Amino acid sequence: MDHARRIFSEYNAWLQSKSSLEPKALRIKAGFDLDFIHQECRLGLIRLWGEIQESDEYTLHLKMNDLEHEEFSLTPLENGFEIAGGSKNALLYGVYRFLNRLATGESMEKIHEHSAPKVDYRIINHWDNMDGHIERGYAGNSFFFLNNKFDYDQERIKNYARLMASIGINGICINNVNVNKVSAGLIAEPLLTDMAELAALFRPFGIRLLVSVHFDAPMIVGGLTTSDPLDAGVKEFWKAQSAIVYDKIPDFLGYLVKADSEFRGGPEAFGRTQADGANTIAAAVAPFGGLVFWRCFVYNCQQDWRDAQTDRPMAAYKHFQPLDGTFDQNVILQIKNGPVDFQTREPVSPLFSNLKNTREAIEFQIAQEYTGQQIDLYSLAVQWEEILAAEVDKGKQLKSLFGQEIVAVTAVTNTGNNMNWTGNILAQCNLYAFGRMAWNPELTAKELIREWIQITFETDAHGRQTIEEMLLTSRGIYESYTAPLGIGFMVNPSNHYGPNVDGYEFSHWGTYHRASSDAIGVDRTSKGTGFTLQYPESLQRMYDHIESCPEELLLFFHRVRYDYKMKDGRTLLQYIYDSHFEGAQQAEALLQSWETLENRVPQEVFNSVKARLQLQLLNAREWRDQVNTYFYRKTGIDDEKGRKIYM
Ligand code: GCV
Known about the structure:
This protein has helices spanning about 1-10, 35-50, 90-105, 155-165, 190-200, 215-220, 230-250, 275-285, 315-320, 350-355, 380-390, 430-440, 445-455, 460-480, 535-545, 555, 570-595, 605-635; strands at about 25, 25-30, 50-55, 60-65, 70-75, 80-85, 115, 120-125, 145, 150, 170-175, 210-215, 255, 290-295, 330-335, 360-365, 390-395, 395, 405-410, 520, 560. By secondary structure, the chain is α/β, with parallel strands linked by helices. It has three domains: about 1-115, Chitobiase, domain 2, CATH 3.30.379.10; about 120-455, TIM Barrel (Alpha-Beta Barrel), CATH 3.20.20; about 480-520 and about 560-635, Alpha-d-glucuronidase, C-terminal Domain, CATH 3.90.1330.10. Strands 8-11-12-13-14-15-16-19 form an eight-stranded parallel β-barrel. Helix 11 runs antiparallel to helix 13, helix 12 (about 430-440) packs across helix 13 (about 445-455) and helix 13 packs across helix 14 (about 460-480). Bound molecules: 4-O-methyl-alpha-D-glucopyranuronic acid. The site of 4-O-methyl-alpha-D-glucopyranuronic acid has 10 residues, from loops.
């Protein structure tokens, strides 16, 4: 554990000490009962400055005033500094932000800020199973569970809570949405008492817990013979069980539900709608101010690949849009950012354009399931910035819905019991960026990446610039050597790492590219599957026409011949060859860039990132060769530049 603690304090991006900052003589003054915040502030400053001496020279005032619930302000004073907030939690956010800005090297006198989050709920979803394994986890095992029990180190949980609060997270769902018979029992004793103890550790940090519940809990936990949401006994079960939950954890945030999806039970199994299911559970938590996050990731995962009519990206909209306006106030529909599944490139889900009377959460995935699995470098901030700026209707960007229809921002976490939290330390940047962006969607990827580098690495200008450039270009690089132009998947089935062009082509998962010898892609226009019709008219037109469709999404929306001329005059096939050759080369350049950082970052960090970049290079070459060979074999057309393609 000593080693573990050392790594934590060494690498914890937020509260890391900075030798460049001088110890200060400072008094912290709080006129209220703010012991906890006071303590956080002291702790943070000590980590930053090494020590703080009590003196009258300089005073840090912590003040609760009439700002909004989570709003804070930071103001330099003549002989001190003032942090004010509308509530205890707001003050805590103010303290963390103050520390964060000091950690970037800013001097106190220049720190002016007034900030309030755009959405009320900023939530991390753990896909932790109670046996300790994390679904799509790439940073070790769960730090909540082991052997079907709660099993955690209190100090680590507090550190985690601090880490999350410092980036504005205020809700954590502790278990996998794929709930099994064991985790279904989290809402009942004896597990509930354990969960209440965990909730108490998070509480001082302004973080409320959620739990993923099993739609069939009435049968599994309650011993009923049905889970039909309109059955009186089922309604009573949810009410009684929720009363027990709230009795133990009065500030419990609510439930997350994955229903009728990937072999999970749901209302449709009983001939009921998604709204029937969500509202029954929502009614049970409503008296306690609880919420139900109801996922829209509903599609037929038993599709016959011969069936060209069923088009998976259309599924969520078909299930949920007609129900707009019928969900209870405390139901929040949780919608993945794209209509398929966290691919490198997808359009924004059409549900965001067309659910006008329903509260929504956008769900991102920080865990890099399809984007390199925390081996390959992939800065999600770059992708999220684009997604947030995407048009949803009449020139309105997605982020303009934050605080309107979109009331919550959620993400599947990339953390595990690896002591630096994310395995690959550079993947910490994604976690950091998520919290900051959920609070303020106007922040750019560049700002977020730069902030994270400044508070994480004590390195020189070359070091900072190199890491920034690596992160900023990483998304484009990964995209260029993997599945082209929004076609998606082409990954190894099940583990989703590495290339397998036809891996899902004849499967039941509904993710097909339908490549033939002269063309590739699914026609999703109004003349094809009709997917584009789920968007408002102007977007529909833009996506429908191959000339106006954003080129990077060409193969998401269109079936295209290999000899199609891209905007720069190259054929589609040549574009695919080029991007794969270039992507692999750029992956090599990433490794070379990192190699210039030896002795500029801690050796351990240097070695572990280097090892991952070496694996990334192998992966990129494998993608390059498999994809290029695949298309060469299909078409028999040579690369114009005569580079090596295998047969
Ligand atoms: C938790 C994808 C992943 C699954 C995940 C699912 C979901 O299909 O591969 O592991 O299950 O999404 O989001 O529910």
